[in-house]
Structure to design on (187 residues):
């Protein structure tokens, strides 16, 4: 093999950069979250991996509800801050305009063009993290990021993360239609 073995500290590429929101007393807390994935079709389930030391971990277990918010490129500084500073030390709720959808205890970020409302359905134990399985109850999008009612990446311009180089990226362009472009190879 000509490839170089670069070890075990490797990641799923690229990761989304999102803000996980939870109720925190009378206000809200937001943490940067890259370890997020959709894990079931129906019901629509996702998994968020959150370190046991984070305030968010405790709040998720207490509230059993949360939001996933997709920030825009210009929010990069605030997003990074939410990943650097704990809600135990500073109030991060003041960074954003908070609004609510169907669930009154799920803080959503108005400035984020796409937000998901989730109900916690399960928690799995990992050595350093917990896997929080959430059911997506509703999703809210700004009209301007939709094409025929669906989120359009060229309009949403989601932020992406790579590790271990720790960089933020944006999506460049669409290169093909999924579940379609390979049809020609069918026997
Ligand atoms: C871009 C970025 C992505 C992050 N992704 C995760 C993640 O997926 N899981 C995690 O446990 N921590 C992640 N973190 C770290 C937390 O966001 C950070 O420790 C935060 O301060 C925790 O806040 P809290 O204590 O208010 O919950 C990330 C940080 C950054 C900068």
């Amino acid at each position: 093999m000509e490839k170089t073995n670069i070890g075990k500290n490797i990641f799923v590429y690229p990761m989304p950069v999102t803000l996980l929101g939870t109720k925190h007393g009378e206000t809200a807390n937001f943490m940067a979250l890259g370890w997020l994935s959709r894990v079931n079709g129906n019901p629509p389930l996702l998994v968020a991996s959150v370190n046991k030391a984070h305030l968010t971990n405790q709040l998720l277990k207490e509230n059993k509800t949360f939001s996933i918010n997709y920030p825009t490129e210009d929010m990069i500084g605030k997003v990074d801050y939410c990943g650097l500073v704990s809600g135990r030390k500073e109030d991060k709720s003041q960074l954003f305009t908070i609004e609510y959808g169907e669930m009154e205890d799920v803080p959503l970020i108005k400035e984020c063009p796409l937000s998901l409302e989730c109900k916690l359905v399960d928690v799995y134990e990992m050595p350093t993290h917990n896997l929080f399985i959430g059911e997506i109850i509703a999703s809210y999008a700004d009209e301007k990021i939709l094409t025929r009612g669906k989120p359009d990446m060229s309009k949403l311009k989601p932020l992406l993360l790579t590790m271990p180089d720790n960089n933020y990226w944006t999506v460049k362009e669409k290169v093909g239609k999924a579940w379609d472009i390979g049809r020609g190879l069918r026997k």
Q: What stands out?
A: Residues 17, 29, 31-35, 49-51, 54-56, 80, 83-88, 129, 161 surround flavin mononucleotide (CB under 6 Å). The radius of gyration is 17 Å.
